[in-house]
Specification:
Radius of gyration: 15 Å
Strand content: 15-25%
Number of helices: 10
CATH topology: TIM Barrel
Cofactor: Mg(2+)
CATH class: Alpha Beta
InterPro entries: Aldolase_TIM, ThiamineP_synth_sf, ThiamineP_synth_TenI, TMP_synthase
Enzyme class: transferase
Strand order of the largest sheet: 1-2-3-4-5-6-7-8
Largest sheet: 8 strands, parallel, barrel
CATH architecture: Alpha-Beta Barrel
Keywords: Magnesium, Metal-binding, Thiamine biosynthesis, Transferase
Order of helices and strands: HEHEHEHEHEHEHEHEHH
EC number: 2.5.1.3
Shape: globular
CATH superfamily: Aldolase class I
Bound molecules: the ligand Cc1ncc(COP(=O)(O)OP(=O)(O)O)c(N)n1, 4-methyl-5-hydroxyethylthiazole phosphate
């Protein structure tokens, strides 16, 4: 397993969340612009569809040395040769995922969803490499979330694990959370629902990259 410092160096500043509803042909251009993290997140996909989607994302961005993480599913991440898995409260516990990954794919990056500093400390203790921290701002991309945590919560949680801020992120907000101590940002609407996704990617890279 690589040392944690190695993970920090490899951890991208920007993760574009990708579902099969998005235009995958844009991915190489995003990567070329400097978006070097892609998270496959598709709640509607079957297991086989997720494996195929992950492989499709890898084949489009692999040449740019970009990092591909699968949301929720360690089995899919392993089957598709992804670089990591992102786990939330209803997914496989980080500790179990770390045990499995240490045998099946040493060095696999594991991200854990956290909403406060105590959760980040717990995630670190159980083997996570980074914390997906949010929702920092209001989002329409996922329902049932708690109220936005705010930038102050990012500052309060920083310094334990690298934080990837998520929820309502745009270029100007990316600069704000980076200044508050976040390592990077994860984005759906701030990229895919913009009139010009390539321009949005460029601005995100300038702000957070
Ligand atoms: C980087 C990052 N942070 C948080 C999340 C949210 O994960 P989770 O809590 O498992 O919720 P879903 O994304 O599965 O709806 C994330 N995906 N990425
Ligand atoms: C999956 C998830 N978890 C917290 S916010 C969020 C959605 C982020 O999407 P957007 O970037 O459009 O706010």
């Amino acid at each position: 397993m690589p040392a944690k410092e190695v993970i920090v160096v490899l951890l991208p500043r920007i993760f574009a969340l990708v579902s099969s509803a998005e235009d995958l042909s844009l991915l190489p251009a995003f990567a070329e612009l400097g978006v070097r993290g892609f998270q496959v997140r598709d709640k509607a996909a079957s297991t086989r569809e997720l494996v195929a989607l992950t492989s499709a994302v890898r084949s489009r961005v692999g040449v740019f040395d970009a990092c591909v993480v699968v949301d929720d599913r360690l089995d899919v991440a392993l089957a598709a040769g992804a670089d990591g898995v992102h786990l939330g409260a209803s997914d496989l516990p980080v500790e179990a995922a770390r045990r499995i990954a240490d045998t099946a794919s040493p060095g696999l990056m594991i991200g854990a969803t956290c909403r406060d500093r105590a959760a980040v400390v717990a995630a670190q203790e159980t083997g996570a490499d980074y914390a997906g921290f949010g929702p920092v701002f209001a989002t329409t991309s996922k329902s049932g979330l708690p109220d936005p945590l705010g930038v102050e919560a990012v500052s309060a949680a920083a310094g334990v694990l690298p934080l990837i801020a998520i929820g309502g992120l745009s270029a100007s907000r990316a600069a704000e959370v980076r200044a508050a101590g976040a390592h990077g940002v994860a984005v759906i609407g701030g990229l895919w629902r913009q009139p010009d996704p390539l321009q949005a990617a460029k601005e995100l890279v300038e702000a957070a990259g």
